[in-house]
User: Which sequence fits this backbone?
């Protein structure tokens, strides 16, 4: 064990670290996000905003943004350095279960219990594409290293690889 951290969130559900490993973040059942300095272990910010558990969170590749998703059907985008909420996005019809940022630093993808995978433009803060191939809730979504492919996994027992539309 190198270092331990005390999370302010109740029952932590999700964790992420920035690409440059400067920051770490965790999200809890209470909808609270904690951002840590990984070098010092210091809690930098406690962010409120979600009304239900945070299922997943991810830093943008440049570690400037933190994107979270929740059972409250929303996606939130935070400015990491200033701890400001800069956007709340909606568009899924049920729990949003996973979020992943594209290596291009301009898009991210989400998956949901509504059986959909959505690609979002981070700057415009809107969905730009929706995949509807799954027949059950979609638990995970992830980009490949160069952002040309997106993969999802669902309770329908399928793993689907998509060519990224953006």
Assistant:
């Amino acid at each position: 064990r190198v270092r331990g951290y005390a999370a302010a969130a109740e029952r932590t559900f999700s964790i992420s670290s920035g690409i440059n490993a400067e920051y770490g973040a965790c999200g809890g059942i209470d909808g609270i996000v904690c951002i840590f300095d990984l070098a010092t272990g210091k809690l930098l910010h406690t962010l409120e905003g979600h009304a239900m558990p945070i299922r997943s969170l991810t830093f943008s590749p440049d570690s400037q943004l933190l994107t979270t998703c929740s059972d409250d059907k929303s996606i939130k985008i935070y400015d990491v350095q200033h701890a400001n909420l800069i956007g709340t996005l909606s568009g899924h019809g049920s729990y949003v279960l996973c979020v992943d940022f594209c290596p291009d630093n301009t898009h991210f993808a989400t998956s949901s219990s509504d059986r959909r995978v959505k690609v979002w433009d981070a700057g415009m803060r809107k969905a730009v594409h929706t995949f509807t191939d799954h027949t059950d809730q979609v638990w995970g979504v992830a980009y490949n290293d160069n952002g040309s492919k997106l993969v999802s996994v669902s309770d329908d027992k399928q793993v689907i690889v998509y060519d990224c539309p953006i």
User: Anything to note?
Assistant: The radius of gyration is 15 Å. The mean pLDDT is 89. Residues 16 and 79 are 15 Å apart (CA to CA).
